[in-house]
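User: I'm new to structure prediction. If I give you an amino acid sequence, what do you actually give back? Let's try with this one:
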Amino acid sequence: MIDILPLAAIDWRYILGYSSLEIIGTVTAVAGVFLIARQNILGWPLGIVWASISTYLAFFEWNLVSDGILYATYIPIQLYCWSVWARRSAKTEDSDFKPTWMSRKAQITLVISAVGAIALWAVGIARLAKSVEWIPEPSLLLRDSTTTVLNFFAQFLQAKKRMENWVGWVIVNLLGIHIYWVKEAPIYSIQYAFFLFLGIYGWWKWNQSLRNAKA
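Assistant: Good question. You get back a string of structure tokens that encode the predicted 3D arrangement of the chain. For your 215 residues, that looks like this:
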């Protein structure tokens, strides 16, 4: 008979997350990213559900101020991306709405802009936390700021179907795995591990679509 005592000793509450909200957020997030990777517009409404849940958790459970702000702003951003895809897809003559790479000059400008924006965001959040009483002291400030800013950049690049968005998501997801493990939110850490895999899958699928369009 298999000894089940080791299984009983496992803190399943820690493994599975501390609330059903974390589980629901993870399921909707992974499903949404998978659909976006396949260029399916239904990924955006699922993203709105995930963003709403994550906003609450970031502010009230983890004190991740930058991520909380990010998730809150993610809701209108997801609505914007949803509308862009719906509008462009509805135009049957708009056959150029396919994944594309930016020019080298535009890529360099993008990197410089992202680095500058991360620095400004970190300074701004630190000062805001000191001057506004209800905002908690930021945790993991630079790492949290990096994921926040790159999320904004990657999201808008994704709305325009720019291939560079997947590079941004890889960085965000690697940092996300670390941040949420440190914050003892393992299910969100696992979620970002899924995101990392789906980001690679998304790049492959979009690149495949790009090659087909060229052919």
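You can read the tokens as a compact description of the fold. Here is one thing that stands out. Residues 18-89+100-214 form one domain.
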